[in-house]
Amino acid sequence: MPVTIAIEQPDTLPDPPSRVRLVLLVDDSRLQRRILRASLERWGYAVEECGSAEEALGICGDRPVDLIISDWMMPGMNGPEFCRAFRALPRDSYGYFILLTSKSETGEMVHGLDVGADEFLTKPVNANELRARIASGERILRMEHQLRERNRLLSSTLAELRGLYDAIDRDLVEARKLQQSLVRERSRRFGDSAVSLLLRPCGHVGGDLVGFFPAGEGQVGLYSVDVSGHGISSAMITARLAGLLSSTSAEQNLALDEDADGTIRVRPPEEVVEHLNRLFHEELETEHYFTILLAVVSLDSGLVRFVQAGHPYPVIQRADGRVELVGAGGLPVGLIPGASFEAGEVRLAPGDRILLASDGITECPSPSGAQLDDAGLCALMERNAAVRGEAFLEAVMDGLIGFAGRPDLPDDISAVLFEFG
């Protein structure tokens, strides 16, 4: 039996809402719909109405209904059943649902909430109470709209960032190729002696650099560099250093000098590193610094003259497999203007070799966090004493991966191996 709805008009009306664009009235009583519609239109809402839940579902499928006011008791599908069906419709936005009822039992209210109703109004409807319920729905819809808009902007921003990341990733892939090209030769023989290089950045590009260069008659220069930090800025510094140390021309290689008669000779390693330190402070405005181990080897006598500027100790492996550390440490390059650096010497006998390794090797962590350290590197070299050249460096790499328990090591890995014949 229809229930009469009395509408009491509020004294003042707020401005029309901005988020509720369409209100749908669902009631089998035309009179009740007319009374509610008059109030809603007076408050500035666009209103659609229908007499059954089945018809209402058709309207909701065709138009973006923002707010529904539905009677509970209707022939056919009742209000709660309609609410459940409405919630099952595919929608881009939320729809606020108010049930009109003469029921006041708690169990019935709980059932209405269970099927998805947001608010209840008891008949006869008080206009101020109805307006308050709609205002509450307005706030919910406004927040939902803001959330959807922010999600849209977030998705759009993420798509742009994904595009930028893909572009940067492609550039970094090319940068990795270019950085690897700085080490054009991974091995070379010098008579009975041989040099082998290992360079594996932990990311696309890294801050490690290794290389060698002919250093005049009967000598070869070796260098191992580790720039602080990782990534693009560190890699750019390694590229600059490669240009300063890798050339065979005395005009381009800081480690070489040319006499008046055109003879190429090597500069003392300590002078070269002091020059690099001065150049770093005068020309490069950067917070980076780097460690370097620069060595010059005499191919006939086996004499190695080297500078250890903050780099790990050179490791000598004798022909009988014994391993020893040499060097006295020293300051990194780029920390202190005017710093001086001292050279050290060691002599290789036939069959001996020297390894210049970055701290990515000695500081490689195990799963428990313990570092390989110098002792671990020495043990690794002793286990592979019979392995030569690039195969030895690969064995060191395999040993590091086994020690770390994972293939993706946290730091750049680099090394120079010189084997004296």
CATH superfamily of the largest domain: PPM-type phosphatase domain
Shape: rod-shaped
Q: Low-confidence segments, ≥5 residues, pLDDT <50?
A: 1-17
List the total number of helices.
10
Order of helices and strands: EHEHEHEHEHEEEEHEEHEEEEEEHHHE
Report strand order across the widest sheet. 6-7-18-17-14-15
Q: Indicate the structural class.
A: alpha+beta
Rg from Cα: 40 Å
Concise synopsis of the structure shown:
It holds the Pfam family SpoIIE. This protein is α+β, with helices and mostly antiparallel strands and 421 residues long. It has 10 helices and 18 strands.
Structural summary, described in words:
Residues 22-138 form the Response regulatory domain. This is SpoIIE family protein phosphatase. It holds the Pfam family SpoIIE. The chain has 10 helices and 18 strands. It has 421 residues and is α+β, with helices and mostly antiparallel strands. The protein folds into 2 domains: 23-150, Response regulator (Rossmann fold, 3-Layer(aba) Sandwich); 182-419, PPM-type phosphatase domain (Phosphatase 2c, domain 1, 4-Layer Sandwich). Strands 6-7-18-17-14-15 form a 6-stranded antiparallel sheet. Helix 4 (106-114) links the parallel strand 4 and strand 5 (119-122). The longest helix has 55 residues, at 127-181. The model is unreliable at 1-17 (pLDDT under 50).
